[in-house]
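Morning, I've got a small favour to ask if you have a moment. I owe you a coffee for this, so here goes:
>
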Amino acid sequence: MKRILTAIVLILAVFALIFFGQLWMMTLAAALVAELAAYEYLKLAAVGADAHNAELRIPVWWMVLGTALAFVVTLPNFPVEAQLPVLSALTLLLFAWNGFRAPLTQVLPDTAQGLFGLIYIAYPLTLVPMLWKQEDGPALVLFLMVCVWCGDIAALYIGRAFGKHKLAPRLSPGKTWEGSIASIAGSMLAAGLVLFASESLTARGNLILHISEPIWQSLLLAAILNVAAQLGDLLESAIKRGAGVKDSGTMLPGHGGILDRIDALLVAAPVLWYVLLIKDYFGLGRF
């Protein structure tokens, strides 16, 4: 029951933000999620370091600052080119901090793990408000979320009921090929329902869910996003198994940690961004 109630609350909150929020609300919400997930990442990294008789030296203040700045430079007043210089400056700051405080054997590993935390968590989540502010952005973000969520649900229940062939037992023993295929089908079916809703609303003159790309492109995009989401899930499992823990945290009743809930999104969102860039470059039309 806790799992269902938590899911309902989160889904309603996301839908409210997508359709009734403003850019600053989307950015603030994504930044808050990123900060909480980054905190969980620090704990996972610390547990992993402790397992190898080492002490992780990534300051919490640095991760908080770095995550916040990742979102600040995406605001309209900042050019897109500002992201790389900010990331470089943060890396050099952490490098210098560790260079003077950490054992020399830990300077490179600690700095690398801190940088990875920003690239893995903060920067992918900055794409969510950036996607939302695009033309037909609300429909785009909803499409992304629905593909990720419905694929996850299909994989869970179909895999649990019919799964026999392990997908990646070293990373996640519970995942099966049957569940993976069902996940792709679930995402494509959900995308089809979104397209149906879009056409129905557009026919009535309501453009809140307007999608202009051909149906086959949307279904193909749903499959691509699902594969990316499944990869994100497996990669987070690799981090947790390396740290020897089952969940990234306990912030969400019945669901584990924040990072457990957004692991698929951390790969799917950048993939969607790249797909849109490729479509724009080759003149394949917009979403």
